[in-house]
Amino acid sequence: MPSHRTQRASEDVRRELTDIFRTLKDPRITGVLSIVKLDLTTDYSYCTVNVSSLDGESAAREAVAGLTSAAGFIRREIGSRLRLRRTPEFIFMVDTGIEHSAEIHRILRGLSDDN
After folding, report:
1. CATH topology (fold) of 4-114
2. Distances in Å between the alpha carbon of 76 and those of 38, 51, 85, 97?
3. CA-CA distance, 50 to 67, in Å (whole number)?
């Protein structure tokens, strides 16, 4: 279980990442991106960010490719904005949980309409 200090740092990183995502000019990063889950290790060396897009899974995959190529810039920005013991390396991943939940909801709704 993460300590209070790690939880607070995770929330700070999440807030700053959201702001940085808005300022990135990579054409692959379009639409609205949301950070579904953020895991910061206790020694602040790695940060895994699960990203979802309202435009669908393919847009999220393109955005993750753009974020991965901009990881060095993002790391530098986080380092200058926050005072952390160590600036983490970012690992961006596509999160399909929202789409999966919507698909299950659609299936269940179809079953209830059949009855």
Report:
1. GMP Synthetase; Chain A, domain 3 (3.30.300)
2. 18, 20, 14, 29
3. 11
The b/e string for 1-12 (b: 16+ C-beta within 10 A; e otherwise) is eeeeebeebbeb
Pairing of strands 89-94, 33-40: unpaired
In the chain, where the domains are located? 4-114
Q: Record the tokens describing residue 80, joined without a space.
A: 């200058």
At residue 115, the pLDDT reads: 61
Collect the ranges in the chain with pLDDT lower than 50. none
What CA–CA distance (Å, rounded) separates 77 from 73?
A: 6
So what's the pLDDT on residue 105?
85
Structure confidence at residue 2 (pLDDT):
61
